[in-house]
């Protein structure tokens, strides 16, 4: 029951407050990670062993600290709640996604491009309205898995140290996990560790999306299309999510000046503004489903 209450408290704090506007712990962690990378990967010459060392230096001390703080009498429960709150990005996801949908509805394509550019790493300056809607929908589905469900999963598995370990690892993957000359070797460990930590959550998310949408289509898209995607975890999440919504995602996109021809995911018409909102509803509904299952499990074990 204590786990249930801590989870509800963390989700509620995120809903009420959103991401901290100042002194966000992940911003400070990002600065630390940058300094570590500059020391161990100067000029992009670091090897895989340097990447492993960098990951350990960045993640393990803070994970251990969260473990010790969570064991403090009286204050430990508060530490658990704050750790989950700091790791969740549910409200932030809506704050980024809804303005994209609103701009598309108003026909303000330049504003929609600018807004979706805050959410994705692809180039957005030349996207048409369908391209913006597709990018926004994909981002909601994928970030719902990374920034919401995976954080919940690791909190439920291992409490504060679990969610801290996951969130810091995921942040390092976002900073170091690029396949380019600078990070090809140094970022290998961060990318592989993040893949491992997301393997089970991503498949639970794919199942969640399927259950809350067009179930048969989502499961079929997951089975047939996910293996074609280059990411072992984003593939199941986005294929199932696209199928659950009954829309087509994927296709060509430009990243850092290079055109990537990606497989088509899902089935049905191209995404529109309303599908960004439908994807967000899928994430919110999934969170409610997970909380309901946690409540039932807690009552059963009480």
From TrEMBL:
Would you kindly state one Gene Ontology biological process term found in this protein's UniProt entry? cobalamin biosynthetic process
Q: Please provide the record's keywords in A-Z order.
A: Cell membrane, Cobalamin biosynthesis, Membrane, Transmembrane, Transmembrane helix
Q: Does the keyword GTP-binding apply?
A: no
The membrane-spanning stretches of this chain are 52-70, 77-94, 147-166, 279-301
Question: What is the purpose of this protein?
Answer: Converts cobyric acid to cobinamide by the addition of aminopropanol on the F carboxylic group.
Q: Which HAMAP family is this protein grouped with? A: CobD_CbiB
Record-given protein name = Cobalamin biosynthesis protein CobD
* Species: Aquipseudomonas campi
């Amino acid at each position: 029951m204590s786990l249930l209450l801590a989870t509800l408290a963390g989700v509620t704090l995120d809903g009420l407050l959103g991401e901290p506007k100042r002194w966000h712990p992940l911003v400070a962690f990002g600065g630390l990670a940058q300094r570590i990378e500059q020391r161990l990967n100067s000029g992009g010459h670091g090897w895989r062993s340097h990447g492993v060392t960098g990951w350990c230096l960045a993640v393990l001390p803070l994970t251990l600290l969260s473990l010790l703080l969570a064991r403090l009498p009286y204050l430990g429960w508060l530490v658990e709640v704050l750790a989950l709150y700091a790791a969740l990005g549910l409200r932030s996801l809506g704050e980024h996604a809804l303005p994209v949908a609103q701009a598309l509805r108003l026909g303000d394509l330049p504003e929609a491009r600018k807004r979706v550019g805050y959410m994705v790493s692809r180039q957005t300056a030349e996207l048409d309205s369908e391209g913006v809607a597709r990018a926004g929908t994909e981002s909601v589905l994928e970030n719902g898995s990374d920034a919401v469900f995976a954080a919940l999963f690791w909190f439920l598995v291992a409490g504060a140290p679990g969610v801290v370990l996951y969130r810091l690892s995921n942040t390092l993957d976002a900073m170091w996990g690029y396949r380019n000359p600078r990070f090809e070797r140094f970022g290998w460990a961060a990318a592989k560790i993040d893949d491992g930590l997301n393997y089970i959550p991503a498949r639970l998310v794919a199942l969640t999306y399927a259950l809350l949408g067009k179930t048969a289509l989502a499961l079929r898209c997951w089975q047939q299309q996910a293996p074609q995607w280059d990411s072992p975890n984003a593939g199941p999440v986005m294929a199932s999510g696209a199928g659950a919504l009954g829309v087509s995602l994927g296709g060509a996109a430009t990243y850092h000046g290079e055109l990537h021809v990606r497989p088509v995911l899902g089935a049905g018409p191209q995404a529109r503004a309303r599908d960004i909102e439908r994807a967000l509803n899928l994430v919110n509904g999934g969170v409610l489903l997970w909380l309901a299952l946690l409540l039932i499990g807690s009552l059963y074990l009480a």
